[in-house]
Design a protein that fits this description.
The complex is a heterodimer of chains A (262) and B (344). Chain A is an alpha/beta fold. Chain A has helices at 2-5, 50-58, 80-85, 103-109, 119-124, 127-146, 162-175, 192-208, 220-226, 244-248, 251-261; strands spanning 10-21, 24-35, 39-43, 65-70, 73-74, 88-91, 180-184, 212-216, 229-234, 237-242. Chain A is built from eleven helices and ten strands. In chain B, 44% of the residues are buried. Classes of the chains: A alpha/beta (262), B mainly alpha (344). The complex binds adenosine-5'-triphosphate (ATP) and magnesium ion.
Chain lengths: 262, 344
């Protein structure tokens, strides 16, 4: 680990991160290094602290201790919107779409920071405003096509099935034009076919769009198939890290995590 | 895919189909012809409605779109009206300057509630904006310049012998600004500004995680909303020719809330419908009770006094039975006709 943490090629580097809520220590001294271009998974039983790590990266929670560096810039203490603008996108575990909007508007909302026109331009819908709106619509259409959302483009998100809403959640994060994508349990509650589609999309996003993916998932099959490397958390502590093969044969992991299920 | 659009520019156009365009044509024609058929009294009702439309659009951008409650909208109308009173009445500044300055002053003062709104949510924001309204009312009553209960005179709009003074002239002036206010609100709603507002309303944490600055857009929502109120106040001041603090008490804020709730929160059309109806209700009551005046001479005065209670009732009943307001009903009817008989 020590060697890895000094690696300058790490895109995302979490060091000795600790976060507690009142008396509960949600994560303790966790260090994780994600390289540019990989699919990196974080697994662990319910309540292990996985989502808390994402919330710390996104700036939604402020960890009491440690550091989070993204492309060599410290994220701790930076506001969530600034972190997002640096290229850190997030697909939420509990669907957090803008439910009063259509699919299209949800995706367009993720590109607010990419449009530079001001209030006056918007009020009159002139020049730069119109041009940027059309350009960004173009980019959003690419995402819609990529994730096969054409047929629901104009539908209110609240009218979609759970599986489709999960896909829109991913699409919205993708529409931000991120460098790194934090995906929290993308296939939970989905049927087999939807799971396979989602796995395909994540691989395509990683390979074709060249976006680093950090994945939280309980579906072991998916994690094993997709991940370059995996970190295992238990009770807020990191208990193992390695390739899917290494991790799944680690006795401590088997005991703490896989052991419960098999 | 029957409705597939060739270009995105077309897809985002303001007036998308023939249906909307023909309604717009009919509306404009009516606006030009109608005033010649109406009495002065009837025109004065329409003028009141036109001013209310501007204020209601502003409040809907804040409450309906951004989800930030305000019980102090009337205070921003007051700020606009008194800015006009001070500029035009005391300093002789012309209308063309007084109007934007009134809007801007209200927008600047909205920072007093906009900035705390980053911390205050729901009930606390409601109380904060309510308190702001009372403070403004207090200042208007006690500040030397605003002359308390006596009120302020506002001069006529115009120069070099031409003045806007008749109901008909005001009608065209007010309708022009109401239409402009509607167009601007529509534009804001369909750009990144409106999307940011709605994103903050629907899921503020997700909005932030998508790169939307909560502080920037919340403060912007308060400022835009107050600007609209300030412009409405400016027009009201010129139209009434005389302003007193009592014009802008809590009942005005409640009336504006009733407008957007009844019309439909988070919609432009709803703001307009609500403004028309809520402004019209007191006149309707007067009309109805006039018939009974012979037998019950005090009735109309009594019921007009109950205006505030009626607005409160409208808010509660709408929220209970049709939370999306009249626009919600309109949408349902539209869907019904589209699918009848089995269009798909
Ligand atoms: N906002 C919060 N306030 C209090 N406690 C919290 C908060 N967020 C998380 N926790 C606690 O921190 C611990 C870790 O929660 P977290 O959501 O990170 O788990 P997780 O690994 O994502 O679990 P799951 O697989 O069920 O999603 C839990 O004990 C949880 O109750
Ligand atoms: Mg979780």
């Amino acid at each position: 680990m020590a060697v890895m943490n000094q690696d300058k090629s790490l895109q995302l580097e979490i060091k000795d991160l600790s976060m507690s809520f009142g008396g509960i220590k949600a994560i303790r001294n966790v260090s994780i290094g994600v390289q540019s271009g990989e699919i990196y998974s974080i697994i662990g039983p319910n309540g292990a602290g996985k989502t808390t790590i994402f919330n710390c990266i996104s700036g939604i929670y402020k960890a009491q201790q440690g550091s989070i560096r993204f492309e060599n810039r410290e994220l701790l203490g930076v506001k969530p919107d600034r972190i997002a603008q640096m290229g850190v996108a997030r697909a939420f575990q509990n669907i957090a779409l803008f439910k009063g909007m259509t699919v299209l508007d949800n995706l367009m909302s993720a590109r607010v920071h990419l449009m530079k026109y001001g209030l006056l331009g918007a009020a009159l819908y002139l020049g730069a405003c119109q041009r940027e709106e059309v350009q960004n619509r173009d980019a959003v259409e690419d995402v819609i096509e990529f994730l096969d959302l054409q047929s629901v483009r104009k539908s209110p998100v609240s009218s979609l099935s759970y599986g489709l809403q999960k896909r829109v959640e991913l699409a919205r994060a993708l529409a931000m034009k991120p460098k790194i994508l934090l995906v929290d349990e993308p296939v939970s509650g989905m049927n087999l076919e939807e799971r396979e589609d989602m796995a395909r999309y994540i691989i395509d996003i990683n390979e074709e769009m060249d976006i680093t993916v950090v994945l939280i998932e309980h579906d072991m099959g998916l994690v094993m198939d997709l991940s370059d490397r995996v970190t295992v958390l238990n009770f807020g502590t990191k208990i193992a890290e390695g390739t899917p093969g290494e991790v799944s044969s680690n006795p401590e992991v088997v005991k703490a995590y896989l052991g419960d299920e098999h | 895919m029957a409705n597939f659009k060739i270009s995105y520019r077309e897809d985002t156009a303001l007036f998308q189909n023939l249906w909307v365009k023909s309604w717009l044509g009919i509306f404009i024609a009516a606006m030009i012809v109608l005033p010649f058929l109406l009495s002065r009294y009837q025109l004065s009702i329409l003028n009141g409605m036109g001013i209310a439309v501007i204020g209601a659009l502003g409040l809907n951008l804040l409450i309906g779109y951004t989800g930030q409650i305000s019980l102090g909208h009337g205070a921003f109308v007051a700020i606009g009206a008194y800015t006009t009173g001070l500029l035009a009445g005391t300093l002789g500044v012309p209308f063309i300057v007084a109007l934007p300055v009134s809007g801007t002053t209200a927008a600047l003062l909205s920072l007093i509630v906009g900035v705390p709104s980053l911390r205050l949510k729901g009930l606390y924001l409601a109380l904060g904006t309510l308190a702001f309204g009372f403070i403004i009312e207090y200042v208007l009553f006690h500040w030397d310049l605003t002359r308390g209960d006596t009120g302020m005179a506002v001069p006529k709009i115009g120069a070099g012998g031409f003045f806007i003074e008749t109901e008909l002239q005001f009608f065209y002036l007010i309708m022009f600004f109401a239409a402009l206010a509607t167009l601007v609100a529509k534009n804001l709603a369909r750009t990144k500004i409106g999307r940011s507002f709605v994103a903050i309303r629907d899921r503020d944490i997700a909005a932030e995680a998508m790169g939307i600055s909560l502080s920037k857009y919340k403060i912007m929502a308060f400022a835009v909303s107050a600007f609209y109120a300030g412009v409405a106040g400016c027009l009201l001041a010129y139209y009434q020719k005389w302003i007193v603090p009592g014009n802008f008490d809590i009942s005005l804020s409640i009336a504006y809330i009733a407008m957007i709730v009844l019309g439909g929160m988070g919609t432009i059309l709803g703001s307009i419908l609500g403004a028309i109806l809520i402004t019209g209700i007191p006149y309707g009551i007067v009309y109805l009770t006039d018939a009974l005046r012979g037998t019950y001479p005090n009735l109309s005065g009594l019921i007009v006094d109950l205006k505030l209670g009626i607005f409160g009732l409208v808010i509660v009943l709408t929220l209970l039975f049709e939370p999306q307001g009249l626009v919600g009903i309109y949408r349902r009817i539209k869907v019904y006709w589209k699918t009848w008989p089995f269009k798909y």
